[in-house]
Prior knowledge:
mainly alpha
Amino acid sequence: MDALQINLAVLLPALSIIGFALIIMGIDMVSNDARHATKGAIPWVALIGTIVGAGLCWWLWDQPVQTFQGMATSDHFALGLNFIVLTATALSIFVSVNYIPQVTRQPGTYYALLLLAASGMMMMGTATDLIVVFLALEIFSLALYILSGLHRSNPRSTEASLKYFLLGAFSSGFFAYGGALIYGAAGSTQYSVIANTLASGAGNPTLLYPGIALLVAGFAFKVSLVPFHMWTPDVYQGAPTPVTAFMSVGTKAAGFAAFIRVLLEAVPTEQPIWGWALAILAVLTMTLGNFAALRQTSLKRMLAYSSIAHAGYILVGLAPGTPAGADAALFYLFTYAFMNIGAFAIVVALERVQANDALQNRAAGIADQWPLLAFTMAIFMFSLSGIPPLAGFFGKFFVFKAAVDGGWTWLAVIGMLNSAVSLYYYLRVTVAMYFESSGAETAERRENAVLRVGVVVAAIFTILIGIYPGLWLGIFRAGLGG
């Protein structure tokens, strides 16, 4: 019994989130009237759930590393991912409070699915077995398919959900087939057993390399790597904006966490092969993402292509296959949660709900109307572009440094050049806010106190992480197995 309890401790953060999702379902079930007072408490129950989950992660942080039947672990890498996912979930709740009642009469469904998606994302980094990764992938993917189409009266939202579902099915197929081939090559789906088998030379390369390629394709879809990025702009634009904000960070964090574990724990001996594959994908992803973003007039599509480019930056640090690169990637994802969800929160304030989007001309001149909104948006744009001393600069610095230290200087140089290209479309938004006059397309005031709190919190952390980058990097530096 004691051993079982110790093993279950590994899963406690995710299980607590599932528990709060069930509580929300219960509240929603007994509150049939949409105006019932308990309906208004649902977002705050969800927020408390994220706080409890973070508290459990904090408690596990100083505990010895534990495993659950060789299929999951509670090392600092897994707990670091949990903090990132819970941060993204909490910020998304702030963005959602006043938005979601305008698109659905079932807020309980939304928040329950949000927490269930978060639990699946948390398990992606905790898993040390390909079967568990696949189950976690399906848990959060199914929740996101529904959330993307939550605005049922909007055809664009329904289209986004259908596209995401169809392409996600192909992605799941790639992953399942790749996992089957690796099982055939190594005789196990557990990372440690796979690594030991390959290190001893007993693996079957005929099955191994196609299996790795298919796994890379499956992960590449989730994190929006070129050429598996086609769904991203349409789904990001069509989904309700709070869902887009959550998805832009959560899926990347979960996908990259599982990706890192598979590469560094299961198949590290094959780094000379998959390292070049990641480098090529990084160059294609950064370049296409940035140059496509230059042409966008929709803020959501611009941020979608920007998200693609950021996935490329993270790959730059992963190509060498070093623990430093994994730590840098986790730090990057942590900074990205604040600056990207913050930017989407501003889009929520600017957009018309029925349009489900905001064109860049709606940002023109808002510095005169909404100085706080404009100031925080400028912080997020500067940080995403990598201007010091904000968090985004150090996120890029550490992944590029990991590439240089690993002997991939040319890849880091391409990353820096791409970052320079991104300056144009990020600063274009800032220029519009401060130096263009407002016109007929200026947004009506939809800012609210709860949204303002989320925006301010995101902006404060974007600044603080940039001022004290060593403190935050040190938290994530323990890395895999620590």
